[in-house]
Design brief:
Elements: H1 7-16, H2 26-30, H3 43-55, E1 60-63, H4 66-77, E2 89-93, E3 97-107, H5 112-131, E4 134-146, H6 153-162
Parallel strand pairs: 3-4
Antiparallel strand pairs: 1-3, 2-3
Helix pairs in contact: 3-5
């Protein structure tokens, strides 16, 4: 994964920035643990946490745009393929802060501004609690409204693969 720094890369960056090498002895033991190394979080970690937090809010039908959901449904059916918890979420991760963009499909009948506020709050709470990063913004794009009589994209894929036409209700 290109976004995940290796311990060697972190050490090189620390040396290049002029950070002193850790000393041995009692002075090194007295340092707080936060000063004795770095914790690097991959972008995917933040995206998965945000995805799970968003799914906890009632009224969310799916994450992602129609195209990404279609490809994701196909990817989920491939043997050995993993479901993308972070589908529909993009994060920028710095050393101390993160910004998150999320694309949603909401259920018909929900009050979208209230839902967006709940999703934003849930994502901020989960990401800050689990990563220690400050969430500077959560941008939400509502891409669609799922109607009660519409089939899911996954249901449409199954119907197309079996050669049957979708039934109208």
């Amino acid at each position: 994964m290109p976004d995940t720094p290796t311990p060697a890369t972190l050490h090189k960056n620390a040396v290049a920035s002029g950070a002193a090498a850790p000393s041995s002895g009692p002075a090194a033991a007295a340092k707080p643990s936060a000063e004795r190394g770095r914790t690097a979080l991959a972008v995917g970690v933040v995206e998965k946490i945000a995805g799970m937090a968003a799914r906890e809010v009632p009224g969310i039908h799916a994450l992602g745009s129609g195209l990404s959901r279609t490809f994701g449904a196909m990817r989920d059916k491939v043997p050995g393929g993993k479901s993308a918890v972070g589908r529909g979420i993009k994060a920028e991760v710095g050393e101390k802060q993160t910004a998150i963009d999320i694309a949603l499909v909401v259920e018909y009948g929900v009050v979208i501004p209230e839902l967006a506020s709940q999703v934003r709050e849930n994502i901020i709470d989960a990401v800050e609690r689990m990563t220690g990063l400050e969430v500077v913004e959560v941008n939400i794009a509502v891409n669609d409204v799922h109607l009660p009589d519409e089939p899911d994209i996954e249901e449409e894929e199954e119907t197309a693969q079996s050669g049957q036409r979708a039934r109208l209700q």
